[in-house]
Amino acid sequence: MAEPVVTRLARPEDGPALLDAIARIDAETEFLGVAGQRHPWADDPREELRRLRADDRGAVFLALDRANAIVGYLGAFAGGFARNRGTIFIAVVGLREEWRGRGIGTRLFEMAEDWACARGAWRLELRVSSLNERGLALYHKRGFAIEGRIRGGVWRRNGWTDDFWMGKLLDPAPSAMRAGSPPRPVRAPGQLAELSGLRLRRLQRGDGAALREWDLAMVRSSPFSLKLPGEVPSAERIEADMADDTSDLRCWIAAAVPMRRSGERFLGFASAMIERGYRMEHDAFVNVGVLPEWSRQGLGRRLHAALEKWAREQGARRLTALVHAPNMSGRGFAATLGYAEEVVQRNYARFDGGFVDRLRLGKLLEV
Questions:
Q1: pTM of the entire structure?
Q2: How far apart are CA 126 and CA 128, in angstroms?
Q3: How do residues 156-169 score in pLDDT, each as one tens digit?
C-alpha cells in the first residue's frame, strides 16, 4: 500500500524546511537548480513566503509524507501587471527521487490549476528541458502544448541543449487581437545627428525621475505596452531598484539629452540582465525602447549595440527578447538585429480588444 501524502499550500513557517527540500531535490536531478548553489530566498524564507501570499504574486504548493517532511513542491507565479496577471508561470516543480512515479506531480498540478482558475487566470506556462522525458510526459498529460524551442537554452550533458516552452489555455474560447502595424509616430523636428548633446550612458543615481518620465511617455504612446500608466513605478522605487545589490548582472543604458532647466531628458532606454544561477548565466535578457517621435533614426540600434557588447563581455552565448505579436514594427526591428522568433506564448496578455500572443525571440552569439 502506498504511503499517504498530503498536499497543501505552503505557509511562512514552512520556509526553512522548504529550502532544505529544494537543496535535496536539486542534488537528485539535472533539471532544476545547481546543487550547492545559494537559493534567492536563503536570507529569510519565512518572509518570502509571507510576502508572496500578502502581495498575491503567487503560491508554493507542498507534498508532505506521513512524518510531515516535504517530498515535493511546485511554485506558481502570476504576471506582474494587470494585463498579464492571468498568465501563471510554473517556475519549478520538484520531487524527491524515491517519490517519483506515484502521481504526486499530478496532484500538485491539480492544486496549482485550481488556484489559478479561482483567481481568474486564463493561461499556465512553463519551461522544460528537451531532455526531460519524465517531465514532458507529465506536462503533456496535464494538457500543456509545446509553443516553441529555446535554442541552446542550457548546458547539460557536456553540450548546449534546447529547452521547450509549454502553455495551457484555461479560457475555452478566447478572443484574439489581429496582428497589425502600430500608429505612425509623429516626427520630431531635426535628426539625431543634429541633436546637440545626445549621449548614450549608463544609468546612475538621480536618474529615477527622468526614467519614470520616459516610461510614462512610452506607456501612453504604445498600443502594445504591458504596463498601464498607473503601474509605472515611482522615481523613488526606480532609485531603490538601481541601488539594489543584486547578485544578477545588470546593464541599464539611457539615451540622454540635456535640458535647460530640468537636467536631462531620455529619448531611449535599454536594459540587459543575466540571471545568476538556475543554469541561465549564459543568457542575457534584453529590452530596448525609443520614444515614438525619435524612432527609425538609428537610436535603437545604437542602444542595442551597447547592450550586446556588454553581454559579450560577460560571456553570454545568447540574447533573449520579448515582443507582442501585433507589434509588427518591433518584430521587424528585432529581425534586422538577427533575432529569430522561437516561442509563441498564446494569449499571454489581455488588452481591451482581446488576448494578445507574446513572442520570445533569441539571438545566438558567436563566441
A1: 0.90
A2: 7
A3: 777 788 999 999 99
Angle 208-221/235-243 helices, nearest 10 degrees? Answer: 120
Q: How far is CA 162 from CA 71, 91, 92, 165, 271, in A?
A: 28, 17, 17, 10, 25
Q: Let me know: does 35 contact 27? Beta carbons within 8 Å.
A: yes
**DSSP labels for 137-162?**
HHHHHTT-EEEEEEEEEEEETTEEEE
The H-or-E segment that residue 45 falls in is helix 45-55
Q: Do 200 and 340 belong together in one domain?
A: yes
Q: Taking 50 as the threshold, does the pLDDT of residue 181 lie above it?
A: no
Whole-angstrom Cα distance, residue 132 to residue 112? 21
DSSP 222: -
Asked whether the beta carbons of 360 and 89 are under 8 A apart, the reply is: no
Q: Do 164 and 204 fall into the same domain?
A: no
In 3-state terms, what secondary structure has residue 46?
A: helix
51 and 140 co-located in one domain: yes
The pLDDT tens digits of the residues spanning 183-203 come to 444 444 446 655 778 999 999
Radius of gyration of the chain (CA): 22
Range of the domain at 116: 6-169
